[in-house]
Write a structure and sequence with these properties.
Length: 197
């Protein structure tokens, strides 16, 4: 007698769809406990995550990424109003600092030295310097001793822009950390430095 085997329907777990009942005990999704209400004031509550984090390390990593995004938003908005990116602003700050400390000569700092000092690493320092030079914020001079070395110096226009931004940037720093006391900030700095080691 011929037997007819019906094929799985689109709504059944065997049809390739993943349902709560089809998760096996060994799967990573099933191994994470589900909570109806994550603790208030937690990362899980902010991102509406019902499953527990797989480890404290994972939660800490994602917490740092989330915090970076929250802090960077207002800063990027301020920079955009003045026609500059955070990375270009960082370059100008480095150059101004090197002038005040006497580290750089008349030509400025080598571009690779600037790249090493940036807060956030960038893949192409040359492109950023190109933009700043086009906006007359910096000058660029190639070394006569070693043509591979390019010196970058800040212009009067670059200094003027930093002067305009100094106060609003400092206000952003204070506003973003206003709910933390000095002891908490010292401890936060210590932990962040330890994390990067």
């Amino acid at each position: 007698m011929e037997r007819h085997i019906s094929s799985p329907t689109a709504g059944s777990p065997t049809a390739g769809s993943l349902t709560a009942g089809s998760l096996t005990a060994g799967s990573s999704a099933a191994s994470s406990p589900v909570s109806d209400s994550p603790p208030s004031g937690s990362l899980a509550a902010e991102i509406k995550k019902r499953q527990a984090f797989e480890s404290p390390a994972q939660e800490a990593h994602l917490n740092i990424m989330r915090t970076h995004s929250v802090l960077l938003g207002p800063f990027e908005h301020l920079m955009k109003k003045h026609g500059i990116s955070p990375a270009k602003y960082n370059i100008l700050r480095i150059l101004r600092g090197s002038v005040s400390t006497g580290e750089c000569g008349e030509r400025g700092l080598p571009s690779l030295e600037i790249a090493d000092r940036l807060i956030a690493r960038v893949p192409d320092i040359t492109r950023l310097v190109d933009g700043l030079e086009a906006d007359a914020m910096v000058t660029r001079t190639r070394s006569t001793d070693d043509r591979r070395v390019v010196y970058v110096g800040i212009t009067v226009k670059g200094m003027q822009l930093l002067g305009i931004l100094d106060e609003p940037v400092m206000q952003l720093h204070h506003q973003s950390m206003a709910h933390m006391d000095s002891e908490e900030l010292v401890e936060l700095n210590r932990l962040l430095v330890k994390l990067r080691q």
